[in-house]
Amino acid sequence: LSNFAVAGAEAEVEADLVAALKAAYEAQKPIGAVCIAPAVLAAALRSFGGEAKLTIGDDAGTAAAIESLGSQHAACPVDEVIVDADHKIVTAPAYMYDASPKGVAAGIQGAVEQVLSWAG
């Protein structure tokens, strides 16, 4: 869906994904992203002038890439989420940490619950 793994802050995102994310973002539909997906989301947002508060945990290099893409990175424990209520985006670090499945599951569950609460 993107070349973030090799291009970092210069990443490009597949056009269909950008279109779907742009439509959801502009319509204020809930968006959830976990693990490395928040970095891909930041790259997609950059392509149409969007921004958000996101997390991938505490990985300094990826956090710097997110910041350079125009979004704000917030450090976050594996079992928690970052909520950007203004843009209806929730992110969780998941396996960006070397963590137990229980911790990862708690963060992902929190993200899913937040998206569902916005979806009504």
Explain what this protein looks like in three dimensions:
With 120 residues, the protein is of the alpha/beta class. The protein has 5 helices and 5 strands; from the N terminus they run H-H-E-H-E-H-E-E-E-H. The chain has helices at 4-7, 15-26, 37-47, 60-68, 101-119, and strands spanning 31-34, 53-54, 72-73, 82-84, 89-92. The strands form 2 sheets. It has a 3-stranded mixed β-sheet, sandwiched between helices. Strands 2-3 form a two-stranded parallel sheet. Helix 2 (15-26) crosses helix 3 and helix 3 runs parallel beside helix 4 (60-68). It starts with a helix and ends with a helix.
Quick description:
It contains 5 helices and 5 strands. It has 120 residues and is of the alpha/beta class. It is globular, with a radius of gyration of 13 Å.
Our estimate of the beta-strand percent is: 5-15%
What is the SS-derived class? alpha/beta
Shape: globular
Q: What gyration radius follows from the Cα positions, in whole Å?
A: 13 Å
Give me the side-by-side strand order of the main sheet: 1-5-4
Give unreliable regions as ranges: none
Order of helices and strands: HHEHEHEEEH
Please state the average pLDDT score.
Answer: 96
User: Helical stretch count?
Assistant: 5
Helix content: 40-55%
Largest sheet: 3 strands, mixed
Strand tally, please? 5
Distance between the termini: 28 Å
What topology does this entry show?
Layout: H1 4-7, H2 15-26, E1 31-34, H3 37-47, E2 53-54, H4 60-68, E3 72-73, E4 82-84, E5 89-92, H5 101-119
Parallel strand pairs: 1-5, 2-3
Antiparallel strand pairs: 4-5
